[in-house]
Amino acid sequence: MTVQRMANVGVVVDDLPATIAFFRALGLELQGRAMVEGEWAGRVTGLGDQRVEIAMMRTPDGHGRLELSRFLSPPVVADHRSAPVNALGYLRVMFAVDDIDETLARLREHGAELVGEVVQYEDSMRLCYIRGPGGLLIALAEELG
């Protein structure tokens, strides 16, 4: 059997309310919030007894989901947010947007900072990387034409 679909992408954050507000400004919907805790959850993650506050965000088309997690225990043990874009491992999530300039203006109100610059690839796309709350790396893509 093959994969049916991607269920979600998980991102560990240090400020859950600010990160929810940022992704809402991007256009995602808050689907729900919950506390995930106990030995059963630790059996899945391998972390033992854990307490994690999560928020599930959904893209407007209903197909993409982003799970934001803030670990209360055990404490976070590593921080990869300042890794350059050529570091090994998961890098970023890219979102397709209607208007990259308008989206950037809206996200800057939530602390977003442009990493490099907005560039155009041939006549097909405009692209950029931004850092969101807590230094999260996000990419934006606007299809042209």
Give me a quick take on this structure.
The protein has about 140 residues and is α+β, with helices and mostly antiparallel strands.
Describe it for me?
With 145 residues, this protein is α+β, with helices and mostly antiparallel strands. It has helices spanning 16-26, 39-45, 100-108, and strands spanning 9-12, 29-38, 50-58, 65-73, 93-96, 113-114, 119-121, 125-131, 137-143. It is globular, with a radius of gyration of 16 Å. 17% of the residues are buried. The mean pLDDT is 91.
Keywords:
3 helices, 145 residues, alpha+beta, four-stranded mixed β-sheet, five-stranded mixed β-sheet, 38% strand
Walk me through the topology.
Layout: E1 9-12, H1 16-26, E2 29-38, H2 39-45, E3 50-58, E4 65-73, E5 93-96, H3 100-108, E6 113-114, E7 119-121, E8 125-131, E9 137-143
Parallel strand pairs: 1-4, 5-9
Antiparallel strand pairs: 2-3, 3-4, 6-8, 7-8, 8-9
Q: What do the pLDDT scores average to?
A: 91
* Number of helical stretches of at least 4 residues: 3
Quote the beta fraction: 35-45%
Point out poorly predicted stretches. none
Number of strands: 9
Q: Give the H and E element order.
A: EHEHEEEHEEEE
Radius of gyration: 16 Å
End-to-end separation in angstroms reads 38 Å
Largest sheet data? 5 strands, mixed
Structural class: alpha+beta
Overall geometric form: globular
Helix content: 10-25%
